[in-house]
Amino acid sequence: MSGHSKWSKVKHQKEVTDSVKGKLFTKAASEIIIAIREGGGHTDPETNFKLRLAIEKAKSVNMPKENIQRAIERANKAENWGEISEVIYEAFGPKGVGMMIRTITDNRQRTVSEIKNILERFGGNLATSGAVAHFFTRVGLIEVAKSKSYDEMLETVISAGASDLKESKETFRIYTDTADLHKVREYLEKTGIEIKYTDLYFKPVSGIEVGDKEVTDKIDKLVNILEERDDVQKVYANLNV
Questions:
Q1: Domain named TACO1/YebC-like N-terminal: which ranges (predicted)?
Q2: Nearest to 175 by CA among 157, 148, 149
Q3: Is residue 76 located within the same domain as residue 176?
Q4: Which of 32, 93, 189, 239 has CA 20 to 30 A from 70's CA?
Q5: What's this model's pTM, rounded to 2 decimal places?
Q6: CA atoms within 13 Å, Cβ hemisphere of 182
Q7: Total of domains in the chain
Q8: What is the DSSP string of 184-214?
Q9: For residue 119, what are the contacts with CB-CB under 8 A and spacing of at least 6?
Q10: Residue (of 106, 105, 195, 93) closest to 142 by Cα position
C-alpha cells in the first residue's frame, strides 16, 4: 500500500506541475500572438521587438521551440487576429489599492466576469476607465545583474537614454520611455551588461501605505489568484510595502 500511496503522490505532483506548465505556455503563446498582431504581422523577432520579448518570456518558462513556432504560425494567419485581444482592466483592491490587470483574451465577457468575481471575494471591485490609470505610468523596464556600482551604472543608463534607475539587493531596475526600451536595451547589451528581464511595465506614480500585514497578505493573495487565471498576464498594484 505504501508503494501505491507514493505513486499516487508522485502522479498528483506531476499533474499539478503539468497544469501549471500548461497555463504558462498558454500565456506565453498569447503574448506571441499579440506581439505579431501589434507588429503588423511581422514574424521576425529582429524587426519586431515586442515579439522578441514575447519569445524570451516563452523561453524563460521552458516553452518548447515547436510550441513557440506553432504560436507564430497561428498569429501569422490574419483570420485568427479577431479571436484574441489585449484588454487592461482597472480595479480597486482592499484599502483602495489601485490595480491594473493586463489580460489577453478571446472572450471578454468570460474574462471580466472571472475578474469581477475574484475581486468581490476580496472586498475589491472593478473601476471605470481612468479611475485607476492615473496612479500609474506605462514605462519600459530592464532588470540587469549588478556588475557595477550605482554611480557607474547611473552614468551608463544616462548615456543609454534611460529615464530612471533603482537599486535592489541583487539587481538594478532601469526605467525607460516605452518608445526607447529597444534602444536602451541594445545599448546595454553592447556594453556587456547582463540583461535578466525586459518588459513593458505599469509603474506606480503614487503608492498607498498599508501598515497592516494581514491586509498586505490579503492583497498579495488576491494578485496571485488573479494571475493564476489563464487570461490574466500580469497584475500591477500601487501598494507600498
A1: 5-77
A2: 157
A3: no
A4: 189
A5: 0.84
A6: 10
A7: 3
A8: HHHHHHHTT--EEEEEEEEEESS-EE---HH
A9: 91, 93, 125, 126, 222
A10: 195
- How do beta strands 195-204 and 239-240 pair? unpaired
Among the listed residues 116, 99, 115, the one whose alpha carbon sits nearest the alpha carbon of residue 239: 99
| Beta-sheet strand order (sheet of 98-105) | 125-126, 85-92, 98-105, 232-237
Residues 54 and 27 in one domain: yes
**Residue 60 is inside which H or E element, if any?**
helix 49-60
State pLDDT tens for residues 190-224: 999 999 999 999 999 988 888 788 889 999 999 99
Cα–Cα distance between 222 and 119 in angstroms, integer?
7
Helix (H, G, I), strand (E, B) or coil at 155: helix
pLDDT greater at residue 37 or residue 101: 101
Residue 213's domain comprises: 84-134+206-240
Residue type, 20: V
For residue 39, the 8-state DSSP code is T
CATH number, position 43: 1.10.10.200
